[in-house]
Amino acid sequence: MHVLITGERQIGKTTVLQKVIGQSDRIAGGIICPIDKIQEIGGKSMTFFSATEKDTLSVGRFHIRKQAIEFGKKALQQAMHKPGYIVFDEVGPLELHQKNGFINELETALKIKECLIVIRKKMLEQFQNTYPAKYKIFEIRENNRDTLAQEITEWLHSQDNH
Fold first, then answer.
1. pLDDT, tens digit, for every residue of 106-149?
2. What is the C-alpha to C-alpha distance for residues 123 and 92, in angstroms, rounded to an integer?
3. pTM for the model
4. How would DSSP label each residue in 35-76?
């Protein structure tokens, strides 16, 4: 079963995800995107956005470095061959509206791996309609964001028995 971590913009989705990654041994790898970086889990990071580079993909007011996309794709492809959940932080307009970014890795992973996906609440329904599957959904709110990482970690570990 895939896991979706959702919530409003700036509620702390990546922060909760980072805590889960630190607490769980069920993570194969993948990418996290804190603030303006893209980071492979347990590895290197690089700047994700650029206002000056010409080789970028535009999503709204953001200009995403193509070099950063290739960096993320490599991290995701490496995680495909390891046991555990593959992490996507975060699936957004680049994937769902433009069918770009990490869309190929996402579609492959949804077929062959268990995925842990961060997605903004306003895109959740579209994602579920586009990729029907079994999902365990955790929504981050003001009143649970300090405890949700532990809840998610406990749920992940409970899946060892299934």
1. 999 999 999 999 999 999 999 999 999 999 999 999 999 999 99
2. 7
3. 0.94
4. TTEEEETTS-EEE-B-SS-SSEEEETTEEEEHHHHHHHHHHH
Domain segments of the chain: what residues?
2-161
Give one DSSP letter per residue of 102-157, joined into a string.
Answer: THHHHHHHHHHS-EEEEEEHHHHHHHHHHS-S-EEEEE--TTTTTTHHHHHHHHHH
**Phi/psi of residue 119, nearest 5 degrees:** -150, 140
What b/e string do you get for 103-112 counting C-beta neighbours within 10 Å, with b at 16 or more?
eebbeebbee
CATH 3.40.50.300: does it fit domain 2-161? yes
